[in-house]
Amino acid sequence: MYKVFIDNSVIEFLDSSEEIPSKRYDSVLNSLQNDLSKLLDQFNFYDSSICLLVVYEDFDMALNQVFHAYEFMDAAGGIVKCDRRYLFIERHGMWDIPKGKLDANEQPWEAAVREIEEECGIQGPTIDHLLGITFHTYSYMGRPTIKKNWWYALHYSGSMEVFPQEEESITQAIWIEKKEWNMIRENTYDSIKEVLDMAKDF
User: Fold this and answer.
1) CA–CA dist 200, 47 (Å, integer)
2) What CA–CA distance (Å, rounded) separates 37 from 176?
3) Could you report the per-residue pLDDT of 19-60, keeping only the tens digit for each?
4) Which ranges carry the Nudix hydrolase domain (predicted)?
5) What domains sit in the chain, N to C, each tagged with a CATH number?
C-alpha cells in the first residue's frame, strides 16, 4: 500500500491483489471503474480530514491520473541511529526528518546520505535498509507538487555534534531516545508519523 498525504487528508493506493483493510474510508474507488482524473475535485482535502482508498491495477498509472495537474519531485532522507539515540530536526516550527531533493542522476540512497550530512552537519552515516516510501503534496514555487520520498534507516558512529543548516530553515537538530518519539509525534506532519511507524523496530 502507498499513501499520499494532502494536509490532514490521505489517499491510500492498494494493489487489487491485496485485501481491503477493515477500516472506514470516505470513498473506495477502483482505477478500472472510476475516472480518477476528477478525484481531487470531488473532495475538500485541505479544509477537512478525508481518507480515500484507490484500488489499482497499475500504481504509476493510477497516481498519474489522480495528480495529473501536479509537478512530480523525488526526494530522500532517513532516520539516523547512533547508539540508542535518533536524529531529528526542527524546520518551520515542526519536527521533521532530514531529507531533500535528488540531484540529477543521483540514486535515492546517495541523496539520503548527502542531505543528512548537509542538513545536520554529521559525516558518514551508512544505509542499513529502506524503511519505505511516502508521498505528500505541497506548493513549490507556486505550483502544486507531489513529492515522492524514499526513507532509509541509517547507522552512525561519529561525533554527535550537529550543525543545523540554517539556509534550509532548520532551527535545531537533536539526538533523542526512542522513548521520546512522542515529543516528535505531537508536533509533526502525518507523513512523518507514517515514517516513525515504519521505523518502530529500528
Assistant:
1) 30
2) 43
3) 999 889 999 999 999 999 999 998 888 777 999 999 999 999
4) 71-200
5) 2-66 (no CATH), 74-198 (3.90.79.10)
